Amino acid sequence: MSDIEFGNCLITQLRIASILFWIQPSLALALTSHVARATDSSETGALLNLQAHALGQQITASVLTGPNMNYAPVLTLSLYKQVLDGAITTTSAFETQYNRFADKATAVADQKIAWKAMLDQTVDAVALQQTLVSNALARWNSATEILNSAEATLRTHQIVLQERQSEFNVGIEIWKIDQIIQTIVNVLQAVVGFAMAIGEIAIGDPAGAAAAPAAAASAVKVATEAANVANSFLKPETIKAIKGGAEAVLKLYESTSTAVNDIQSKIDDVTDASKVILKPAGGDVSGDDQSNADLAAIFSLAAWDDWMLQSDAQMVYAVEQSIGGAGAYQLELRRHAIDGKLLVQARAQAVKLGQEYIQLRLQLHATQANKSRLQQLYDTYQGEQEAALEAQGYFYDQVFMLRNSIMIYMRDAVWAYKYYTLSDSSIVLDPLKTTLQYQQDSQMILQQVTLCKENYSSDFTPFSLTIQTLELPLDYPTSVVTALQSDSHSVTITFSPSITSTSTFSSITPAISSSSLPPVARPFTGGSRFRVFGMRAFLLGAKPLPTSFSPVTSKAPILLTISTSGIYNDVQDNVVYGYTMKPLERTFKYMVTKDGTVQLPYTFDSIIHSADYVDPTAFAQWTVKIENANSLDLSGLTGLELYWEGNARLNHGGGNA
After folding, report:
1. Which among 437, 450, 512, 584 could disulfide-bond with 564, CB atoms 3.0 to 4.6 Å apart, if both were Cys?
2. Is 578 inside any structural domain?
3. Burial 534-565 (b: 16+ CB within 10 A, else e)
4. 203 and 337 share a domain?
């Protein structure tokens, strides 16, 4: 087989993988792995290599995050349907001419008419693709913002965990003196060693991560030896899964970030698309460096849930044994595990969104690069079979690019449906459907919303909920005050769904800032699908400085920024759903009199009712930052009063929501 024939074979395999990506991801992963390894060091095959990585890494990252972790489109379902219908119309027009051109019975004159029509319609196809590329790039940028915050959080908790670890290690050394069997001592020390190791791996710090594999290997050995020992809860397979998953997703992210930067610098800054020289991304599309990527071998984030349960059970035993420092270490270990899972989850989500951007940008690049060649072939075409086949290949890629745009918009609509209903749509994402079937699916998705509503006798229940941080559990009452009085003047409070121990977790929502605190469910209990229009926060006990009051109105402003991290949870039927979307950030400004009375109306309100944008879930990391702390006396601060407006589906008989 010649190099040209082999190259064409790889192109065909990638086209097949692009279809299987939607309907048979395991087969698509195997094909993309083969194409990537066949082009791993080829400059001439760099475009194919990057396209193979774009598909394969999206599949891998999707397995890591699980089926209930999705990007939640920020616009309403009806708006996505409008865009979807436009994509279907554009594709249908182009596909009609393509089928006419590809029909062997078509006369040369009619072929050229269809050819010219497709050349003219390329403008619409490119415009549609450019919109997709812009949206994908915005999602990638949003994902990296979330990831950077998650990295900062875990770095902070690494320091705190190390402090608690030192205290706990002293306690272990004292406790082990009276122990006849050393196995449990070894298990406790393994927990301590692996917790720090997995944090370094998840962050990707080269200096710290260098010693991490040895710590992980030691923990696996200890857990294996203690498998049948009483009061030993740590499982070796859990350690292996967390380590493997964290290492894989870090490798994928580094590859994705490099490719995004390379493509932006080389494609976006060059006017002649045919002169772009890209670099291949290597042969590993799944992050495990195996010769053949296997979907079943990819570790999922579920291993983090196992680690949380097993390590916490081990620490419960340590607390019961009255080992010095065990209680404080247990609390930090819980926070650290939650932060670790978020970081790996955020990184995997960034891989998905980054590789989708790469896929779409490369498709657009190929269309633009082939345009002049198609025009050249058209100008000289007199029915030559070789020229017709070459043009047909280019036009097929444009057809698939348009069909892929339908799939992406349909997927966004399906995700919007899932966000609205907390249930899966019956629509099957299949790139081989006819445009008529796509039109039927587009109509069906709104019909399914109607059918979902018919399961209930009324709409969602509106709520207005208030809670003071003094009412929150654990150390929130004091920690909130400490955080707001610190130099950052900000605090993050995490609200998570209240569920039973048998619940299905798709994600655990951790906090994002260094002033983060353990998650709580109140006041969002007794129902499901909690959505909010925003949150207001009021400072309790804080007083504006005398110079802050207006001499005319005798009022002073309090200015806050209220934001979320972009990672959200929701709950229904004891199943937790995870979503990422653009982080929310709103300004809340209100005026107070000298006796502290809040004045209405508010200057700037952070609760906004929107007809076009979806409302975020209540279960998120809500950050409150004081923007004018220099004009306030915070010495008497006692906490925050938090207020939400929104709606929910209450359980039968009502609830606390």
Report:
1. 584
2. yes
3. bbbbbbbebbbeeebbeeeeebbbbbbbbbbb
4. yes
